[in-house]
Amino acid sequence: MLKINNLHCKVEAQDGAEKFILNGISLEVPAGEVHAIMGPNGSGKSTLSYAVTGRDGYEVTEGSINFNGEEIGDMAPEERAARGLYLSFQYPVEIPGVPTLIFLKEALNAQRVARGEAEVSAPDFMKLARTKAKQLSISMDMLKRPVNVGFSGGEKKRLEILQALILEPKFLILDETDSGLDIDALKVVADGVNTLRAPDRGMLVITHYQRLLDYIKPDVVHILAAGRIVKSGGPELAHELEAEGYDKYIGEAA
Amino acid sequence: MGVIKPIAAETALIDALDGATGWLAQLREATRVQGLPTRRHEMWKWSDLRRAAGEITSAGQITVTGAADGVLEPADGETVELSVSASAGASAAALSVVVKSGRTVTLVERYRAEAGSLGNIHLDIEIEDGARLERICIQDEAEEGILVASSSIDLAVNAHLNQVAFSFGGKLVRNETHVLHAGEHSEAHLHGVYLLDEGRHNDYTTSVHHTGPGGITHQLVKGAVTAHARGVFQGKFKVDRAAQLTDAKMTHRALMLDDRAEIDAKPELEIYADNVQCAHGNAIGTLDETALFYMRQRGIPLVQARALLIESYLAEPLDFISDEALREQLRERLRDRLRAIS
């Protein structure tokens, strides 16, 4: 489903200097599977999520990103989104003045139009939003407020998952979805993610800690260090990391 | 001191105002002696009217509908629709508005200026004790025209002014508002929105002079400017020694939509009282790239994402308009305009 081959990516820093963050990542996530990417700070986890979703400033210099048989490395972010790629942000962005419901309706219909599907009518959309919001214990009042403005950390993360439930992407990248969540919020978010698990949907769960993986059980765990995958294995790898830390992998990558 | 050698536009204006009285006579005399304002005048340093009027050679016509004989005295609860239209050439008009004590009045001013016009209009506004005026100045049809709309507002005690200026600019558009603020439970709200496409120039200049104690002035002006357009904001609060406990806040925020946009801002406080709350904030920025990416990642195309972000940014001062239909109408104008320029 998602095939990343020998991906190199450089990022332009604020001082204009360029830095290579990804140094040849290869990774394949088949439909129906959940893969976890674990790694220390600065290993390139977030960069990988931005490179795959096409953020400006994250330039792919070598390698390829193939999604469902299509090369997407040169596509605009909205084109990748319309093909079903979804990124749950580590730090969801506040958009003052744009009510969440309006934002979500615009997003859903833009994706549908891009795919040649009919737009969803306002009443149908409201029904959909109400049903999905209930699943995540999100009030409709909250959805009338501007996107993420004044939301707590937990509310922002829940809203990320709500957006995924409404947009129904084919592939989800969850970037540090557990950060800033207490255990109750973590369970709600993980439940939401688990309802999205499906034979035709893949997921990449990026996390620093093993904790999230107790709730979202991965099929494969990859360890990322210095912009490369240094080890892949089963779920037991996450437990091993929790016990032993990242130190030995940082050594290996250097 | 010699009189300047007039350019054709000045001669046309001076001739057209022959025999005028009041403000028009003052305009004629100022034009005769000093010429049209240039960047050498401190108040006009970013809006060179004389240069902008360089190609105008004849007199034009300014038509005002909605105010018979140039005098308005609206009834309580009345909404007055005022249309001001300047044809090609130099022209000027003046009118006076009195909001009688205790009345609540809405004044919706719609301005048009044809290509090749230099339209000057002045409103003398008196808001009497306990009266309320909501004033919406819509300057979205100046295109290639020059329009200078000035007003002197006399705000009595216990009176209330709520002004929202909405502009798409023009060859040169200036809204100049002067408020004489008596304080003593009176309030002035002077908001504004401008959205400027290539070649447009908009200047929102306001000054508020607090003469009595306890007055309130609040101002929120927001703008967005594309390449080769210029937005000017000049805001001044003057607080006399007698105007203790004045509460005055000025905020101007604008977006540069392109590196080649220009925004000039001069917030100014002149305070002679020692027990007041006065503040000004001025911030010029660019569209939030992170928000743009977030929206695009959700599937909203770049052009649409930009338009949505700019619209929501600019819409904030429109929330001060009480009439929901008018507020929505102006928001729709913004939306259409954004669609056209992106």
Tell me what the structure shows:
The complex is a heterodimer of chains A (254) and B (342). With 254 residues, chain A is α/β, with parallel strands linked by helices. Chain A has a single domain, classed as P-loop containing nucleotide triphosphate hydrolases (Rossmann fold, 3-Layer(aba) Sandwich). Chain A has helices at 45-53, 77-82, 100-114, 122-135, 140-144, 153-167, 183-196, 236-244, 247-253, and strands at residues 2-12, 18-29, 34-38, 58-67, 70-71, 85-88, 95-99, 146-147, 171-175, 202-207, 220-225, 228-233. Chain A has a 6-stranded mixed β-sheet, with helices on both faces. The model of chain A has no long low-confidence stretch (mean pLDDT 92). With 342 residues, chain B is α/β, with parallel strands linked by helices. In chain B, strands 1-3-5-7-9-11-13-15-17 form a 9-stranded mixed β-sheet, covered by helices on one side. Chain B has an 8-stranded parallel β-sheet with strand order 2-4-6-8-10-12-14-16, covered by helices on one side. Chain A binds chain B through residues 53, 55-56, 76-78, 81-82, 86-87, 89, 92-98, 103-104, 106-108, 110-111, 114, 146, 163, 167, and chain B through 288-291, 293-302, 304-305, 308-309, 311-313, 315-316.
CATH class category label of chain A: Alpha Beta
Class from helix and strand fractions of chain A:
alpha/beta
Percentage of β-strand residues of chain B: 35-45%
**How many beta-strand elements of chain A?**
12
Note the topology:
The complex is a heterodimer of chains A (254) and B (342).
Chain A: E1 2-12, E2 18-29, E3 34-38, H1 45-53, E4 58-67, E5 70-71, H2 77-82, E6 85-88, E7 95-99, H3 100-114, H4 122-135, H5 140-144, E8 146-147, H6 153-167, E9 171-175, H7 183-196, E10 202-207, E11 220-225, E12 228-233, H8 236-244, H9 247-253
Parallel strand pairs in A: 3-10, 3-11, 6-9, 9-10
Antiparallel strand pairs in A: 1-2, 1-4, 4-5, 7-8, 11-12
Helix pairs in contact in A: 6-7
Chain B: H1 8-16, H2 22-34, H3 49-52, E1 62-65, E2 71-72, E3 79-86, E4 89-99, E5 104-113, E6 117-127, E7 132-141, E8 146-155, E9 160-167, E10 172-181, E11 187-196, E12 201-210, E13 216-225, E14 230-239, E15 247-256, E16 262-271, E17 277-285, H4 289-297, H5 302-314, H6 324-341
Parallel strand pairs in B: 2-4, 3-5, 4-6, 5-7, 6-8, 7-9, 8-10, 9-11, 10-12, 11-13, 12-14, 13-15, 14-16, 15-17
Antiparallel strand pairs in B: 1-3
